[in-house]
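Before the break, one more example. Copy the sequence into your notebook; we will annotate it together after we see the structure.
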Amino acid sequence: PYDHTPKKWKNLSEVYAQCKMSIIEPENFEEAVKDEAWGKAKTEEILMIEKNFTWELVDRPSSKPIVGVKWIFKIKLNLDGSIQKHKARLVAKGYTQKPGIDFNETFAPVARLDTIRTLIALSAQKGWKLWQLDVKSAFLNGVLEEEVYVDQPDGFVVKGDEDKVYRLRKALYGLKQAPRSWYSEIDTYLSQCGFHKSPSEATLYVRTKE
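Here is what the structure looks like once it is written out:
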């Protein structure tokens, strides 16, 4: 008999078996050193941070606390279970930050589910087009108001300047204020583009076409 199963589909057991063989995520920096793919992923992360002018190397301050950093390693998979990308993310140890010293405000609004449902329903009713966008390394674009210093990351300590630290111009993932800094940045950008924020929904912006 003819097999009507779409060719792009696979049995769940096959996908699970492939994932089980493929996913080997390092738990720390030392484990990641053994695989060149993770070395490339770390370099890409550092290049992204530097491209965004996220930090500057400075002398270690005597009166300011230094926030530690660590590497997080994740494997992104395709729908068929094959490896799409090795992703290394440098995150700050935000749990060591002290309120009033390393950060002040941390709250950042998130979109409410009923708002999203309403927009989808209106789009279906009125024939509007919908686009879904993703901002790559979004939190790295949030400008910091506070004076925050972090250690140099493992594997990327500048030779001859081992005792120096980075002063952050923009946020790193893991910082307490990172979500708020990003929201402030995107709020300013959308306002400059002519969008108006809803008085009842802080994540809903509207621009009227003339």
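DSSP finds five helices and eight strands in the chain. Strands lie at 55-58, 66-67, 69-77, 83-92, 149-150, 165-168, 196-197, 205-206. Try to locate both features in your own notes.
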